[in-house]
Amino acid sequence: MDIDAWVWWLIGAVGLGIPLVLTAMPEFGMFAIGAVAAAVTAALGGGVVAQVLVFVIVSVALIAVVRPIANRHRDQRPQHRSGIDALRGKSAVVLERVDGSGGRIKLAGEIWSARTLDADSSFEPGQSVDVVEIEGATAIVM
Fold it and tell me: Assign residue 88 a region: left if phi > 0, alpha if psi is -120 to 50, beta otherwise?
């Protein structure tokens, strides 16, 4: 059984597509597209040297062009803060007097224990404060 070169290139493309799916590394997809381009070259009667050159040129061109664009888009995604990181910088309302030794605030719809960043300052009920840090279950406010 004699298999044409273009079939081998397609088998190679599928082989490169498997790690793409398993590892989510887009470079494997670019190599798979290069293998498909080499398969087309083989189907059109191109020699082995032409097939390998097409594979290398298409793969390298895709990596050189697509990868920087993908990195730029990845860097532009908004960073979503979650957990206690999302609470830093939020405003809260004082429920019970807050000073250096403690107190209570309403932060993001929940009641938190709180203390002031500056031990000498204090805030009275109804005042608005900003959360600077979260230490355990205590919000540090100013």
Answer: beta
Distance of CA 56 to the CA centre of its chain: 29
Q: Which residue stretches of the chain are H helix? A: 5-23, 26-43, 48-76, 84-87
Distance CA(12)–CA(9), nearest Å, equals 5
- Beta strand 110-116 with 138-141 is parallel
Angle, helices 48-76 vs 26-43, to 10°: value is 150
Over the stretch 64-95, which tens digit does the pLDDT of each residue have?
A: 998 888 888 877 766 777 778 888 889 999 99
How many angstroms from the chain centroid is the CA of residue 71?
10
Under 8 Å between Cβ of 57 and 49? no
Q: What's the pLDDT tens digit per position in 114-136?
A: 999 988 899 999 999 999 999 98
Exposure letters 11-33 (e unless 16+ CB within 10 A, then b): ebbeebbeebeeeeeebbbbbbb
